[in-house]
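User: Predict HAT C-terminal dimerisation domain-containing protein's structure from this.
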Amino acid sequence: MYQYRYKMHLRDIGITAHFIDPGTHILRTVMIGCLQFNESHTMINISEFLKEKFREWCIHQKICAIVSDNASNILGAVRIGGWRSISCFAHTINLVVKDSLEIIADTVIKVKNVVEFFNRSLPAQRKLKEIQEQMHLAPLKLKQDVCTRWNSTYDMLNRFLKIKEALIASIAIMRAELALTPNDWMIIEKSLPILSIFYEVSNEVSAENYVSASKYIVLCKLMYVQIQKFSNETVETIKGLVSFFKTELMHRFGDIEKNMLLREATILDPRFKKSGFRDIRNFEAAAADLKLKIGRIVLSDERPLQPAEPVEPTPGCSKVSSLWEQFDEEVARQVPENPVAAGIVEFDKYMNEPQINRHCDLLLWWKERKAIYPRLHSHMLKRLNITATSVPCERVFSKAGLTLNDRRTRLTTKKLTQLMFISCN
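Assistant:
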């Protein structure tokens, strides 16, 4: 879910629904609303608005979770509506990295100044290309960053470092006062491997039509493990950068393994299961809860358990047999426990299967084992459909920018909504 304001000053809310097709086992994304919302964006108003739209689409009983950016009014609306909330992973990462860039801000500003100079000056661009050709390098242009996307800052620094030698020569000829110091180059070289951790994570979770909720906990674990590798850095600026990331990861994701939705999604992903957790105690708690839930699931071909009625002995059988009496009592005690026991057996059997390769199609895996793990499969459909980010919803507004441009500003809100619905679905 995402909020946006067009340049026509129409305040809109976008809603996308994500579900696993039970027949094909493909993750589907459907835009159910890119809607004008002129009421005050208070928590109560947004909550009522969402309830209305969910009822309109007959999905009000099927909401597993609502994923949104970290806006307080959206989070409050979700809480008032009684839904479960997941904060957008990509937005949280974006906040962490944008704050971290303040530590190397002096160097980043110098890089921006150089990039802006080359982008404005055609002679400088020609000189850079000429020097790259003289060095037998592929001619590459500099990349400009965008203030709203830290990923673009990473791309800018990465490209800047890639053509370092050609840049040094070009700057010396065209604008010597813009030259970076050796310390600046060292900061770029050492900070890029650290930033690349978060760059890869952002790209991973922002991919549409890929199961991402089950990766949330795993990626938090991997980020923490990777950032620890830079603990022995001696350069003060880089030490500060590493320390900042460690603190922020613990602050923002320290309790992520206690999130019920995310930890169940992790366990139900055959690529991760137990291996996705940093703390084994969190896995054990999640597994115990999941076993109870699975045991309470009644399959479509089952009837809810009723108290056993006494069965009359068949003719010829003795009414009392001391030989079979103890056995019959044991069976009678086990009958009420069968549904729960079946769920536990199913869970244990699933956990004992080897994990599949990370690149395998986990939904295809579940499709092939639907009959083997019917209860787990039923619960899986309500967990692995959850996305970890609101990025798919934001893309709706990217398309809106293409649909509503300076040449089409006379479109009515109703017509725009209809065009967006057709475009996105």
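The longest helix spans residues 182-205.
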